[in-house]
Amino acid sequence: MNLNYTLIGQIIFFAVFVLFCMKYVWPPIMAAMQEREKKISDGLAAADRASKDLELAQQKADEELKEAKTKAADLIEQANKRASQIVDEAKETAKTEGDRLLNAAQAEIEQEKNRVREELRAEVSAVALAGAEKILGAEIDASKHSALLDQLASEI
Amino acid sequence: MAGENPTTTEYIQHHLTNLTYGKLPAGYERYDGTVLEADTWTMAHGSAEASAMGFNAFHVDSLAWSFGLGVIFCALFALVAKSVTSGVPGRLQNFVEIIVEFIDNNVKDMFHGRNPLVAPLALTIFVWVFLMNLMDLVPVDVVPSLMMALGVEYHKIVPSTDPNITLGMAVAVFILMLYYSIKIKGLGGFVKELTMHPFNHWLFIPVNLFMELVGLLAKPFSLGLRLFGNMYAGEMIFILIAVMYSAGLFFGLFGGFLQLGWAIFHILVITLQAFIFMVLTVVYLSMAHEDH
User: Fold this and answer.
1) What is the number of structural domains in chain B?
2) Which residues pair with B22 in a beta bridge?
3) Among the listed residues B222, B221, B237, the one whose alpha carbon sits nearest the alpha carbon of residue B269
């Protein structure tokens, strides 16, 4: 075992390599690794956040969908109601209109009846007058006996 | 040695000799019989010359491989660090990030102070020591015979089987330990830790000092020698298995299986040793940062 200057040479080499490693090798590699670590942890956190956001959005969408459904159901119900209302209203108007028409027709009929009756009455009175004239053989002054005739006519 | 058939002992010794460049003292008789007139810096021929150089020597192969592997580590990681992206990483970046994250988690578990040096230090130690240990898996004869063909006589390619390399790193860690002990606890606090533990009485100061100093010095030594011992032993077994190849067809085949088995097992050992070196470094530095 010969100890010699080799030992001192090795100490110098050792110092040189360690200093080199400390200055040019370790810091950049370590920095890159730490940066990657940070990137990954950031990415994971972002993914977590995103999935939470997604869940929230899903929930919101569900809620909105449900709301929309109820709204739609309401609208349909309302429309149905309105439709039946309209139908009812239409029925009502039709009925009143029908009634009105019926009443008008009836009134007209009544009126016609009255007119015919008046005519008939007039004619009857004329016929009665003519008959009475014939029977009595005398002339009946229509103007004199008009009151009587009118009374007679109204009795018919 | 080149060209002749070496004996087993020579073969093993050859594999355990570093390529050494150092100063031979004046008056030393070299391998070829010449006597040096003055101190000479030269390549050593054989382990006898290498040991004659004493401390004034460099293990050229250990230093070159250690430096080269360190450069590979730095280049690879710097390449990734330069084009690093926090987006989807490429294959290379992924690979580097796995290692960096592994180190970072380990350091976070063991080291609770705030020190920007510790994690890069741990990364450097882990990858660098792993790469140095990995050289152990290259078949023992390949690079030495290649270098022999190029005219280089000795070559050990596993830097972590050289105690200079492992102890060098351990000493560097030790210096950091002392530096942070004094920086965090103050010189007084550090001295107090050495003298007033475990027996908190002034009469016990010599005993405490002895025990704490032994404990303190044992840390870098055990750190360096553990790695060296494991790698040296592993390399030794590879060399011994390689010796079997010259002992006939049967032993050669048997050796092949052994080598495969040992290499597979050794993948575990080299990783584990690199990991242990890193963990202990972090633990020692963590202890240095603890303020009582």
Assistant:
1) 1
2) B42, B57
3) B237
CA–CA distance, B198 with B78 (Å, rounded to integer): 45
C-alpha distances in Å from residue B193, one per residue of A23, B184, B208, B283: 33, 12, 9, 17
Pairing of strands B57-59, B40-43: unpaired
Q: Yes or no: say if B76 and A27 are a contact pair by the CB < 8 Å rule.
A: no
**Which chain B residue's Cα is nearest to A11?**
B168
Separation of alpha carbons B187 and B199, rounded Å: 20
Residue A153 contacts residue A122 (beta carbons within 8 Å)? yes
Distance CA A26, CA A17 (A): 12
pTM for this entry: 0.77
Write the pLDDT tens digit of every residue in A63-100. 999 999 999 999 999 999 999 999 999 999 999 999 99
Classify each residue of A71-105 as buried b or exposed e, where b means 16 or more C-beta atoms within 10 Å of its C-beta: eeeeeeeeeeeeeeeeeeeeeeeeeeeeeeeeeee
DSSP secondary-structure letter at A17?
A: H
Domain that holds residue B111: 60-289
* Residue A108 burial (CB count, 10 A): 10
Residue B51 lies in a domain: no
The verdict on a CB contact (< 8 Å) between A5 and B123 is no
**What's the pLDDT at A127?**
84
Joined together, the tokens standing for residue B46 give: 């054989």
Contact A7 B116 (CB under 8 A): no
Give the gap in angstroms from C-alpha B180 to the nearest C-alpha of chain A.
16
Does residue B82 sit within a domain?
Answer: yes
Q: Is residue B21 part of a domain?
A: no
Chain B nearest C-alpha distance from A46 (Å): 17
C-alpha span between B76 and B127 (Å, rounded): 11
> Which of B72, B242, B55 lies closest to B144, judged by CA?
B242
pLDDT tens profile A14-63? 999 999 999 999 999 999 999 999 999 999 999 999 999 999 999 999 99
Domain presence at residue B173: yes
Q: How confident is the model at residue A140 (pLDDT cuts 50, 70, 90)?
A: low
A121 CB-contact burial (10 Å; exposed 0-12 / middle 13-18 / buried 19+): middle
ipTM score of complex: 0.89
The number of beta carbons lying within 10 Å of the beta carbon of residue B95 is: 13
